[in-house]
Amino acid sequence: MYGIGLIKGLGVTLKHFIETYLDDIRWLGRRYYRDESLAERQGPHARGIFTVQYPEEKLPVPEEFRCIPFLVYEVGEDGERLYRCTSCGICSKVCPPQCIWIVRSNDPETGRPIPSPTEFFIDIDICMNCGLCAEYCPFDAIKMDHDYELASYDRLADHIYNKERLSKPVTYYESIRPMNFAFEEAARAEKEAAKEARRKAK
Amino acid sequence: MGDDLNGPEYQVPEELRSHITITTLDRIYNWGRRSSVWPMMFGLACCAIEMICVAASRYDFSRFGMEVMRPSPRQSDLMIVSGTVTKKMIPQIVRLYNQMPEPKYVLAMGACASGGGPFKEGYNVVSGVDKFIPVDVYVPGCPPTPQALLNGLIKLQEKIDTQSIRTVRWYKREASEPIPIPILGPDLIDPRDIPILDAKRASVVKPDVPENS
């Protein structure tokens, strides 16, 4: 008989429709806008509609999620920003779409280059979120951000990020990528220890 | 709904709030428009996959009144430029933009549509659709996640909220001009540049060539 498939398909829709109301009763009006219920609705035991009610609730992003890069700085004793970046320019060389622009400067007294970027620009409308800059950075100074809500009305005014807008503290990096941070800190401590041991051996 | 529509300058007594709404013409007009932004159904590249995902049930932009993606420019309000705009494609995109009835909006989705992305110096790619048509919202990302696109669409709704009937370009006395459609030859020619190119050609000093050589 013709039309059986059609009725079956509509039956699935009807099932989801009814199950949404049954699920509403099960959660007693607490089905939306809460992390636990969102996890349940996105999981394998979801019943009824599973739409993410976006502005109110957001899907958690995985740790390795990457949007645009940011510059990591450490807060010094006087509250000043100690950038890890040495303006070596490796990131801007490996960047496939060439969206990084670094301004270097020399010390006016000695005439030698300052190992910190004077300005740092990233055109986030060119950036392809590949993460090669973070991958290649030898100083762990540039990392990929999790914030994806970057839409704006003016490309040139809002979407060419300067050093000020790119800078995020190292505590922020720790909060978005705890596993990577712990791994990197362990590697750094090991390196320091090895250096110390070599120095003592001499 | 009442909260959206009630003007803050009018005080409605508490007991009448569920029955009466006092609002301005701008506000109710914008409320109607922002709740029924119909996007045009076309995709250009990989960003289109994310746009399809936004239309599907997990993200579902029908919650913002955008459920019907129209396959015809005559019925759509919003053009989501989702992907790389090649030089071969831009004449069609400008043509579609001209065919859309006003009020119309353009959302550049992803790096390629906003600024050319990884292909910004490519021989066959327009580096940014805003070289030809006015873009209202830029959504960065490569591609933007569905939630980032939803964020851009909410930004567009906020923009619609700020507009006023008195100042928008489509109620001006003079009719709005269509954008000249670029000509695709060996390379792309923008008709708006032709006078400049002509002037440049006229200013070039021709080398002296003897008559019968």
Structure overview:
The complex is a heterodimer of chains A (about 200) and B (about 210). Chain A has about 200 residues and is an alpha+beta fold. Chain A has two domains: about 1-60, no CATH class; about 70-170, 2-Layer Sandwich (Alpha-Beta Plaits). Chain A has helices spanning about 5-25, 35-40, 90-95, 130-135, 155-160, 165, 170-175, 180-200, and strands at about 70-75, 80-85, 100-105, 120-125, 140-145, 160, 165-170. In chain A, strands 1, 2, 5 and 7 form a four-stranded mixed beta sheet that branches. Chain A has a three-stranded antiparallel beta sheet with strand order 3-4-6. The longest helix of chain A has 24 residues, at about 5-25. The model of chain A has no long low-confidence stretch (mean pLDDT about 90). By secondary structure, chain B is α/β, with parallel strands linked by helices. Chain B contains seven helices and five strands, in the order αααβαβαβαββα. In chain B, strand 4 (about 185) and strand 5 form a beta hairpin. In chain B, helix 2 runs antiparallel to helix 6 (about 145-160) and helix 3 crosses helix 6. The interface of A and B includes residues 123 and 153 of A.
